[in-house]
TrEMBL record:
This protein's name: DNA-binding protein H-NS-like C-terminal domain-containing protein
Source organism per UniProt: Ideonella azotifigens
Pfam families: Histone_HNS
InterPro entries in the record: H-NS_C_dom, H-NS_C_dom_sf
Gene3D superfamilies found in the cross-reference section: Histone-like protein H-NS, C-terminal domain (4.10.430.10)
Compositional bias of kind Low complexity: 130-148
Region of interest (Disordered), residue spans: 72-99, 116-148
Membrane-traversing stretches: none
Domain DNA-binding protein H-NS-like C-terminal, residue spans: 73-118
Length: 148
């Protein structure tokens, strides 16, 4: 028995005709019903596949008629940093796409991966603090203006 995969899920195929494969492959990129409505035979094939999927996953008509609860959000725990820029303190946990700061550090600043790993093991550097802005304006200086 062959299986067809629909959004990554197997669809058991009991009665499968090779002609259906050619039609499905030819229309793989097209939206369903975009070119023409299904004829009686095609509709029967689609309904049979839907029924097979429902049987496979144990879904009933009542399940389809019920309100679908919103999926619970998946909480991804924060991972400790695996890489840290020793100067800027920027971090990356090694998950997902490589951040721009890491590329710059490796390619343009000449750092090595091991340096960034070692920096992640050390305590983070203190945050960069901007000097406090004085309330004194240039006009309040004791220096006389130029030309006087």
């Amino acid at each position: 028995m062959r299986s067809l995969f629909f959004f990554g899920f197997p669809i058991p195929m009991h009665e499968h005709e090779p002609a259906d494969d050619a039609r499905l492959d030819a229309n793989a990129d097209a939206e369903p019903g975009a070119d023409r409505p299904l004829n009686r035979r095609e509709r029967g094939v689609v309904l049979a596949r839907i029924q097979a999927l429902m049987e496979f996953w144990g879904i009933t008509i009542d399940d389809l008629l019920q309100d679908t609860p919103a999926p619970e959000p998946v909480l991804i725990p924060d991972l400790p940093p695996k890489y840290r820029h020793p100067t800027t303190g920027e971090t990356w946990d090694g998950q997902g796409a490589q951040p721009d700061w890491l590329r710059r550090a490796l390619l343009k600043e000449g750092m090595r991966v091991e340096e960034l790993r070692q920096a992640a093991l050390a305590p983070p550097p203190p945050p960069l603090v901007e000097p406090a802005a004085d309330d004194a304006s240039p006009a309040a200086d004791d220096t006389p203006p130029a030309g006087h």
